[in-house]
Amino acid sequence: MIKSIKVMLLPNNKQRTKLFQSAGVARWTYNWTLARQQENYKNGGKFISDGELRKELTQLKKTEEFNWLNNYSNNITKQSIKDACLAYQRFFKHQADFPKFKSKRKSRPSFYIDNCKIKFSENKVKLEKLADSKKQNKQKINWIKLTEKNRIPLNCKYYNPRVTFDGINWWISVGIDTDYKEDFEVTKTNGIGIDIGIKDLAICSDKAVYKNINKSKKVKKLKKKKRRLQRRVSRKYLKNKKGGSYCKTSNIIKSEKELLKLNHRLTDIRHNYLHQVTSEIIKREPKFIVLEDLNVRGMMKNRHLAKAVQEQCFYEFYRQIQYKCNWNNIEFVVADRFFPSSKLCSCCGNVKKDLKLSDRTYVCSECGNTIDRDYQASVNLCNYGKSIV
After folding, report:
1. Apex CA 7: angle with CA 80 and CA 113, to 5°?
2. Chain segment 281-301, per-residue pLDDT in tens
3. Beta 170-177 vs 158-165: how paired, if at all?
4. Which of 7, 12, 15, 54 has the fewest Cβ atoms surrounding its Cβ within 10 A?
5. Which residues share a beta bridge with 165?
6. How far apart are CA 29 and CA 20, in angstroms?
7. pLDDT at residue 181, as a whole number
8. What 8-state DSSP symbol labels residue 49?
9. What's the CA dihedral at 260, 265, 268, 274 to 10 degrees?
C-alpha cells in the first residue's frame, strides 16, 4: 500500500523565486503540449505520443528563443508533457472534460520532481537544479527546510513527488510504500453505522454523537471576521473603480491575502476536526463501517441548506473514513442511495413514507416505537452492513 505524506516547506526568498519559476516552466510546457495536440488534430494527424513531443522539445531547447528551458530540471517538462497527453487521451475516452489551458492567475502552481533525484534529511529536502551554479556554496539553495522534523522516512523509494503552492505556502507531497496485512485482525466490536447530517456531523449506532464544528463559537467568530473582510475588499474595489474597470491597489492585494489566510484557517479547522472524529471512530476497531451514499449535488441545489452542506465537508469525511478503514483492515460499506435509513422502523421494519425533514423524532404507526430519527438511521445502516458482510 502506498501512503502519501504532505509537508509544508520553508523556502527563503531566492528559493521561493526558483519555485515559482519552476511552476511556470511546468505550466508553459503543459500549454505547449495541448496546443501541439490541437494543431495536429485540426490538420488530420493522429495522436502524438509523449515520447515524440519530448524529442521535439529537446530540439526546441537548442534554439535561442527557448534556451531558457535548460536552466530548469528536465523532469519538470517531461512530466508536464505526460500529464497533458494523459488529460487529452482521457477526453477522447469519455472519462473527463476537454483539458483547458493553464492560466497564470487562476491555475495552482505546481511541478514534478524526479523520484530518484529527490533527497530528504531530518528537516530538509533537496530539489533538483534550483541553483544556477555548480559550486558547493551555491548548491545550498537546493536544500529547502521542512516545517516538520523526521516526518518523511529516509532511504526509501518515493512515488510521484510534487511541489505545490496553495496561495500562501509551498508544500511537498510524496508517496511511500508501506506493508499491508491481508488477514483481518480480531476486532472488539461488531460494526458501526454512521448517519451524517447538518444538525450534527455524525451519529453512530453505538450512541456516539459528534457535534457540528461550524456551530462552535470559534468558527462563528472567524466567519464573522471573514464577512467583514469581504465587505472591506468590496468597498475598496468600488472606491478604486476607473470607468468600466476595477483598479487593484496594494491595499486591495493586502486585504485579499488576509482574506485568503482566514479561508485557509477555517478549512484547516474543519479538516482537523474531521481527522479527530474519523480517527476516534477507527480506534474503536469495528468489524465494518457503513455510510450512506448521499446525493450531495441534489442537496446543494436547496438554497436554504447549500451553505451548511458545503461547510460540513461530506466528501472529505467519506474520503478519510475510507482510507483509514483500508489502513486498519476494517471493511468499508456504502449503503444504497435509495435505502430508507430514516424512514425504516428499527423494531418492526415498517416504512413511514410520509416522514418529513422537520420530524426529528420518529414515531412508528405500527408498533409505537419512538426514537430519534438520526440515531435510528445509524442503527438501520449498521443492520444493513451486517446483512452485506
Report:
1. 25
2. 999 999 999 999 988 889 899
3. antiparallel
4. 12
5. 170
6. 14
7. 53
8. P
9. -120
